[in-house]
Amino acid sequence: MADARSFIQDVPITTKAKKRTTGIVGLNLLLDGGFPEGTLIMVYGTPVSGLDLAAMQFWKAEGGEEGTYFMNDGDVEVGMVDATELHPGLYLTQMAGSRIIVDSLSTIIVKYGVEEALKFLRQCREEMKKRGANMMFVIYTGIHSEMEMTRVMRSADVVIEFKTSVQQAEIERTLAVQKIKDAAAPQRLLPFIITEKGIEASTTSRVV
Fold first, then answer.
1. Strand, coil or helix: 159
2. Which of 3.30.540.10, 3.40.50.300, 2.60.40.180, 2.40.50.140 is the CATH number of 17-201?
3. Per residue in 92-124, pLDDT tens?
């Protein structure tokens, strides 16, 4: 008779989370395939750091998946939902597809308060888990208190910071994955440039 312990050890473990492409090749490599399905993704930085481009590329990423882009603080483009006057409690009823963007959560916090924003995130987490979808939300630095930023970060499953610095005569842009659910955050910064097509991140082994 086979040893039960030996049999259990021989059963392959297949619990690796499914991933959804980020829309940025270098970031996919950094995250070993993309964002874990069913998670909330927070991207934060200044308004000119590339946040809007990252959100747009995630929304339009290849794969034929439908998505919903809620715009409440910028120009509403074709296909987006005009959320300028939409209460966060009504977002869920209009979410369609697997790629949800909220641009931005900063506007929700300023307009309705951080408690309402955190309640919204809790509801979205349950909905994303249920659907196996992902929601990315944008947060701008320099607007919120440290406590508000901390609470929002704790509500997110993935946290990515977009950084901009000036080195002599050049602007250097990098992103840092500060947090990722059930995994170790990458230890390297990912350099990127902004082109007419959007964000292009390095895919070299030195970086990723």
1. strand
2. 3.40.50.300
3. 999 999 999 999 999 999 999 999 999 999 999
Q: % helix / strand / coil in the chain, to the nearest 5?
A: 30, 30, 40
Nearest CA-CA partner of 86 in 103, 64, 67: 103
Which string of b and e fits 36-58 if b means at least 16 CB within 10 Å? bbbbbbbbbbebebbbbbbbbbb
**pLDDT tens digit sequence for 191-204:** 999 999 999 997 66
- Mean pLDDT value across residues 84-88: 97
Cα 146 to Cα 139: distance, rounded to the nearest angstrom:
13
Q: Extract the tokens encoding 101.
A: 């963007």
Angstrom distance (rounded) from CA 185 to CA 167: 26
70 backbone dihedrals φ, ψ, rounded to 5°: -90, 115
User: Tell me, what's the pLDDT at 11?
Assistant: 46
- Name the pairing type of β-strands 190-195 and 198-201: antiparallel
Dist CA 37 CA 74 (whole Å):
27
Structure tokens at 24: 């940025």
Rounded CA-CA distance 174/161 in Å is 8
Domain ranges of the chain: 17-201
